[in-house]
Amino acid sequence: MKTAIIVGNGMVGYKFCEKFISRATPGEYHLIVFGEEPRVAYDRVHLSAYFTNRDAGSLEIAPRSWYEENQIELISNERVTDIHRERRTITTSKDREFQYDYLVLATGSAPFVPPIQDIEKEGVFVYRTIEDLEGMLTYAEKIKEKKARPKAAVLGGGLLGLEAGKAVMDMGLEPHIVEFAPKLMPRQLDTRSSKVLQLILESMGLSIHLGKATSRILGNGVITGLAFGEDDLLEADMLVISAGIRPRDELGKSCNLKIGVRGGIVVNERMQTSDENIYAIGEVALYRQMIYGLVAPGYEMAEVAVQQILGNSEVIMCEEIDMSTKLKLIGVDVASFGEPYMPAEKGHSIIFENKTKSLYKRINVSHDGKTLLGGILVGDANDYGILHQMYLNGIPLPSDAEDLIVGSRGDGVSAFGGAMELPDTAVICSCEAVTKGSICCSVINAGNDSVKAVAKATKATTGCGGCKPMVTDLVKDSLKSLGKTVKERICEHFNYSRQELYDVVKLREIRDYDELLDAVGSGHGCEVCKPAVAAIFASIYNETANRQATIQDSNDRYLANIQRNGTYSVVPRVPGGEITPRKLMALGRVGQKYKLYTKITGGQRIDMFGALLHELPLIWEELIKEGFESGHAYGKALRTVKSCVGSTWCRYGMDESVSFAIEIENRYKGIRSPHKLKGGVSGCIRECAEARCKDFGFIAVEGGWNVYVCGNGGANPKHAELLAENVTSETAVKYIDRFLMYYIKTAPPLTRTATWLEKLEGGITYLQNVIIHDSLGIAGELDKEMDELVSTYKCEWKEAVNTPEIRSRYSHYINTDEPDSTIEFVALRDQKMPKAWT
Amino acid sequence: MNSLVHHEYQSVSLEEVNYWYRVAPADLFPVNGGACVKYKDKQIAVFNFTRENNWYACQNVCPHKMEMVLSRGLIGEEEMEPKVACPLHKNTFSLRNGEHLNGDLKGIATYPVKVEEGFVYIGFSE
After folding, report:
1. Angle at which helices A498-507 and A729-746 pack, to 10 degrees?
2. Between chain A and chain B, how many beta carbons pairs sit less than 8 Å apart?
3. Per-residue pLDDT at A597
4. Which residues contact A155 (CB under 8 A, 6 or more apart)?
5. Looking at chain A from residue 24 to 83, which residues have their Cβ under 8 Å from any Cβ of chain B?
6. DSSP state of A819
7. What is the Cα–Cα distance from A24 to A220, expressed in whole angstroms?
8. What is the pLDDT of residues A16-68, one digit of tens each?
């Protein structure tokens, strides 16, 4: 058996192991991994996530047991100190000696600390490891005790610097970014995009200082500020340095491997150092005079080294390394690819800038207008996937290249045909290096007919997941090319779409989940089909969630929203947002009695958090006595109908929006649907109730209501579309009756109305025909079904409180009445919150 | 403190059982659903998988965020592997061997369950 020793247990070192064991014949090699940190390899790319969740475990790439299962010897907390090339051994900080056949150096890099005068001070940190972060957190707490809002400076306005800026902001410090260059992210952005990004960041509260050369750190032992030049100072109580990286090449130096002038262990295209048995990969490797501080090239190097060691000498590193990046920086999309900026003699640029919307898009094209050379996207990077592929594969540009960034106008045809037009060699999943060809082949030749099956077979989408939309398109289109329509099935247990299942349940009058599964399904069900079927029963029979409790989603099972620590929140219905002072006081009294955290929701009601499971029926018993009903905030059901005050009080109001909203909310309350439903009623076109951001909305106009459908806020905001203009309230209600019923019967599970409409062939015109002109001849049926739902409503909390059998479900333990003793709260602004995840 | 809780839970195989804890009458448990059992300082989720005619037990704490919630999750099966879905983030775990089925989290500890004369027992090794 041969031995390969890997020095460094970072992301690239881990990737090497993963690739090695998947390619090597078991038993032929023994792998030993050394890590100097006490932890196993973790995801440094998402290091700043640690600030929000403080969960080192969630950053772990693979647990220690993974190494054991794969017979890899992982030795952490022990540094390799020397390499003895002549006898092919290494020695460690604990004076142990190990023999190797192959040695792989994946020691990574350390933060580069610029030679600034007086930098050795308390309060100066680098940003690299979890331990660094913990040091920063402790220090931040300390200085916050002394000062109301201490300032933290971050040296470096690159990717990592801005991440660090966000991190110190999250710690409650005032963030200042200090950059030597005259722009942010100097490697990725041009000056104009940097300005757009700067505006966005400043609006979030980050101060940006560009073109500043820090000459000295101020303070007597403890940092108090930075000096840039004469009379140019910045106060700072803490400093985080993220001014670039320096390869950790000490080991290479000490055993006389060839080292670059400015550091880094020189490697050839096989990832070999000047000693052919020693490889270097990742940020320590100097390839073609460059250090690559990104994960993807590091993974590629790992692949090459694995293949070389296993004797596949034809696999070598490509000459041009793609440094394209896309990331979400403090919630802002930033991407750059190819040559982001370039001199005019190389090509032309097409630039779109809209500072009012914080958008900047630039593409660089060759002089003949045929090839894409690179580009920058700030504020909206949705097109990155396709642009990046066009760049990588040299796909000819459309005649109007501008359409690529501003969208084609007029005919509604997209400028680029989509993923199927890419060449087979296009790498779609860069984490796992899966090409378009192998994805399509996996569908067409190997018979994998879902994204899940393709992911299992090819590993595509299993890394960062960024390629999922493209893989989904490829799978769908490949299936289409086989003449197969993509069969929508809700899960492995039912070979039916939700719409088909709805019809089966209705026609065969099936009322129990098990009965349905036995009749038309297979197996024992799962967390996908159970709630979907529960919603169908609710829509057809208006059955509450109480009868078949264990097929409900967990929130429906207990009629409350489970929150991060396993406690629940309670939201009573407040129709139209109208509430009497007496009822407000009742909520206040209940909230106080059960020590609940209370907050006004976006839907004009009051959410009360932190209720223990056994308290829920007690709380609801009191609320019901005060005249409240379930608000169904836990269900895929009607939530609220938001309203403005309307003509009763407002001097602009055209109609009584509150009265109408209350009528509507009471009409549809309790109705279960494929996803949550929200409504809005505005008394005039000023639209204070934001009715056009809702699944259905009404806006009062002279003489009637304009009716809108299929809008939503959330992750993909969409304005609702006009269904009918200037109609009476009776007609408006009738249209929404039919609209909701049609949506409930035909939408796939967990699909909001906006997405449903998008996929509906014929779009809003088709919907108008069905609802207004009864083109399918089903309007009468829809009306009848809705009437039935409305007339059979009952409050499910009332049912739960009054039925001892249901009430008895509300106990944390089955064998004792004690509450869960592990739940802890901490104080927050005169209220409480769950103790943070550790 | 919750992070420490996790390490207290170690899978017990049927052969290792040296103590059967008598929990509660079987008909107290929901059909095709779970409930939480307190045993000393431990919280154990017990599932009555009626469709499979099987009982399962595992730690109640989800290894993702260390919250005591698994007993409230939906149960089901994936290619006939019985599983529970965590109500917080829908991570699914095998009820047979505790393996994380839709990701790479550390698995969960599982325990043998038996029903005798209408009573549910969980097997521990102490």
Report:
1. 100
2. 113
3. 94
4. A114, A161, A178, A214, A226, A239, A240, A241, A242, A243
5. 55, 57-58, 62-63, 65-66
6. P
7. 57
8. 999 999 888 888 999 999 998 887 777 776 676 676 666 677 677 788 888 99
Q: CA-CA distance, A432 to A572, in Å (whole number)? A: 48
Whether residue B109 lies within 8 A of chain A, CB to CB, comes out as no
Question: How far B11 CA sits from the closest chain A CA (Å)?
Answer: 15
Cβ-defined contact of B30 to A809 (cutoff 8 Å): yes
A249 close to A263: Cβ distance less than 8 angstroms? yes
Percentage above 90 pLDDT, chain A: 52
Question: Would you give the distance in Å from CA A362 to the centre of its chain?
Answer: 25
Higher-pLDDT residue of A617, A160:
A617
Tell me how far apart the alpha carbons of residues B96 and B98 are, in angstroms, rounded to a whole number. 6
Which residues, other chains included, contact A504 with Cβ-Cβ below 8 Å and sequence gap of 6+?
A496, A510, A516, A519, A520
Region A294-317 average pLDDT: 91
pLDDT at A563 > cutoff 50: yes
A562 close to B (CB below 8 A)? yes
Contacts of B52 in chain A (CB under 8 A): 524
Indicate the range of A169-173, A426-430, A578-582, A723-727 predicted with least confidence. A426-430
Q: What average pLDDT score do residues A96-111 get?
A: 94
CB-based contacts of A339: which residues, under 8 Å, 6+ apart? Answer: A346, A364, A373, A374
Q: Does A522 touch chain B (CB under 8 A)?
A: no
Three-state DSSP at A823 gives coil
Distance of alpha carbon A375 from alpha carbon A391, whole angstroms: 9
How many Å apart are CA A213 and CA A633, to the nearest integer? 54
Do A98 and A89 touch, CB atoms closer than 8 A?
yes
* Whether pLDDT at A180 is above 70: yes
CB atoms within 10 A of CB A253: 12
Angle CA(A713)–CA(A197)–CA(A154) in degrees, nearest 5? 115
Residue A362 half-sphere exposure, CB side, CA atoms within 13 Å?
Answer: 29
Tokens of A422: 């890419």
- Residue A770 sits at φ, ψ, to 5 deg, of -65, -45
Alpha-carbon distance B74 to B112, whole Å?
20
User: Rounded to an integer, what distance in angstroms lies between the CA atom of residue A372 and that of residue A233?
Assistant: 44
